[in-house]
Automatic annotation (TrEMBL):
Single Gene Ontology MF annotation: UDP-2,3-diacylglucosamine hydrolase activity
Family: Belongs to the metallophosphoesterase superfamily.
Lineage of the species this protein comes from: Bacteria, Bacillati, Actinomycetota, Actinomycetes, Micromonosporales
Source species of the chain: Spirilliplanes yamanashiensis
Name the record gives this protein: Membrane protein
Span of domain Calcineurin-like phosphoesterase: 220-385
Length: 442
């Protein structure tokens, strides 16, 4: 089954589930439910249309409504799915309490809330004397009278259940869950938009490095990734990033891929402020997968024109604070389709193993290929820190480190959250970030 068909099936099932929980379970039959069904179909078409057409650059006006719906859809799905277990448990509990109600006893509103009201003894005695004889010569119960009148006491003898009462409770529960899910999803998306469009935060982290000379202790590397210049990004996005990096007095700046979502003609002016980044020993760049969607060769030329050194399966020896450090960079895995993939043997050929080496690689998973080359630290991005919690749990299935510091096959890896966003302009639990790594000698 192709990717497009799989995507269509998944999107269709998600929207069917949302329609069932938000529309069919909460609205009576008639035009409101029909209107909800039409809306569900249109939104189901909007989601994949946005992903395809906005990426192609043909209908940029669709980006805001389409991507915001994707974020809202995601959080509606998550909240409703989480509510399924307590919802089912509450329904079972209600039914169990109804079954314990004695047959023939009419459920009053107080009983619906769990309070069993008993008639005073005197009233019961009077009622018993007023009842006609039962079938066996005893006193007829209220249930017998109801049965003789053709009005059964419930939906089964001895169960005390009331279908209409159960239906009203199910409706109340469904509407409560829908309201809660809607408010929670809208709140999460609203908060996430504000976070995503806001300025990036600075994350400071100290990295121990066994081979680092004492003279180089405290070497600073500013790491930024996933800037994702595009139609939804604020106009001053690149300038904010540049200002933040320049404020930390870095020795080296590493831009580890996914700079843009568009062509040089569309976004060249937006990227121009990055040419004003200041670092003692230079600013370096490696490709991410999105460069290959946006025309990687023109962007490589443009980045170089801005005075940023592009490492394409290369390394450069840097003399920092009286010591030597190898800075290596490999192309992204996405470049393989374009004949421009990562080449680790070429990158590390002839390297002096006594020198510490820092590897720039867009995806954390590339550390598995770097393990045999004695890499002391890999800096990466790509994951966006998950971007929208709990999506980080799915990212973890593909990437060994989602955010921050970790170890992959013995290689220390630091993953920055990224300074931008992809798709929905929403970040929840993973704020935009520029990272400052301070290398520490033993």
């Amino acid at each position: 089954m192709g990717f497009a068909a799989t995507l269509a099936i998944v999107v269709g099932l998600i929207h069917w589930y949302l329609y069932k929980r938000l529309v069919r379970d909460t609205l009576p039959e008639g035009w409101p439910r029909r209107a909800g069904a039409v809306a569900a179909v249109l939104l189901a078409l909007l989601a994949p249309t946005t992903l395809v057409l906005v990426r192609e650059g043909s209908v940029q006006w669709l980006a805001w409504p389409g991507f915001l719906w994707l974020a809202l859809m995601f959080y509606l799905l998550v909240v409703l799915a989480v509510l399924e277990v307590p919802r089912a448990a509450l329904l079972l509990w209600w039914r169990a309490r109804r079954r314990r109600t004695p047959a023939g006893v009419t459920a009053t509103p107080a009983q619906a809330d769990g309070a069993v009201q008993a008639e005073p003894a005197a009233q019961q005695a009077v009622a018993a004397q007023a009842e006609p004889p039962g079938p066996a010569g005893g006193v007829a119960t209220k249930g017998d009278v109801a049965t003789k009148a053709g009005d059964p006491p419930g939906d089964g003898a001895g169960t005390g259940t009331d279908p209409a009462h159960d239906a009203s409770r199910r409706l109340l529960l469904a509407r409560g869950a829908a309201i809660f899910a809607g408010l929670t999803a809208a709140g999460a998306v609203g908060y996430g938009v504000r976070t995503a469009l806001g300025p990036p935060q600075l994350d400071r982290f100290q990295v121990p490095m066994a081979k680092l000379p004492r003279a180089m202790d405290g070497t600073r590397i500013a790491v930024v990734s996933d800037i994702h210049l595009g139609p939804l990004v604020p106009a001053n996005h690149a300038q904010r990033i540049t200002d933040l990096i320049n404020s930390v007095d870095a020795d080296v700046v590493a831009i580890v891929g996914d700079l843009v979502d568009g062509t040089v003609e569309e976004l060249g002016a937006s990227a121009a402020p990055l040419g004003r980044i200041q670092a003692r020993h230079g600013t370096f760049f490696v490709t991410g997968n999105h460069e290959y969607y946006s025309g990687h060769l023109p962007w490589i030329e443009e980045v170089q024109r801005l005075g940023i050194r592009v490492l394409r399966n290369e390394r450069e020896e840097l003399l920092v604070r009286g010591g030597a450090l190898d800075l290596a960079g490999v192309n992204d895995i996405g470049g393989e389709e374009f004949g421009d993939g990562p080449d680790f043997p070429t990158t590390f050929a002839g390297r002096d193993p006594s020198r510490p080496v820092v590897l720039m690689a867009h995806q954390p998973v590339q550390a598995r290929s770097a393990a045999e080359y004695g890499v002391d630290l890999q800096v990466s991005g790509h994951t966006h820190g998950g971007q929208m919690v709990p999506f980080n749990l799915l990212v973890k299935l593909e990437q060994p480190v989602v955010s921050g510091y970790g170890t992959v096959d013995g290689v220390p890896v630091y993953v920055t959250n990224g300074a931008g966003f992809w798709g929905p302009p929403v970040r929840v639990g993973a704020p935009p970030q520029v990272s400052l790594l301070e290398l520490r000698a033993p």
